[in-house]
Amino acid sequence: MNVDLHGAEWFKSSHSSGGGECVEVAFLAGGKVGVRDSKDPTGPALTFTPGEWDAFTAGINDGEFNRP
User: Fold this and answer.
1) Contact partners, residue 36, CB within 8 Å, separation at least 6
2) How far is CA 68 from CA 22, 60, 64, in A?
3) Quick one: what percent of the chain has pLDDT higher than 90?
4) Which ranges carry the DUF397 domain (predicted)?
5) H-helix or E-strand containing 34?
């Protein structure tokens, strides 16, 4: 499904280290969430439904993606 990203307001986390290895997030129409590589702002973006985004951020908060 194609999502219109024109005019999206992208932002980085306040926890971003500024080292260039960041992602940007935009809250889109219909509750969707866009994610892209900050080094390639004209490149592809992933889009998530609200439920997918909630599951992802819950996993982050629960440490699900921590490296051993």
Assistant:
1) 10, 23, 24, 26, 43, 44, 45, 46
2) 21, 14, 10
3) 53
4) 8-60
5) strand 33-37
Q: What is the mean pLDDT of residues 57-61?
A: 93
| pTM summary value | 0.79
Give every strand in the sheet of 33-37, ordered side by side. 23-27, 33-37, 45-48
pLDDT of residue 33: 96
Token couple for 58: 């819950």
Residue 24, beta-bridge partner list: 36
Q: What is the C-alpha separation between 10 and 34, in angstroms, rounded?
A: 8
* CA–centroid distance for 31 within its chain: 13
Q: According to the model, what pLDDT value does residue 55 have?
A: 96
Domain boundaries, the chain: 23-61
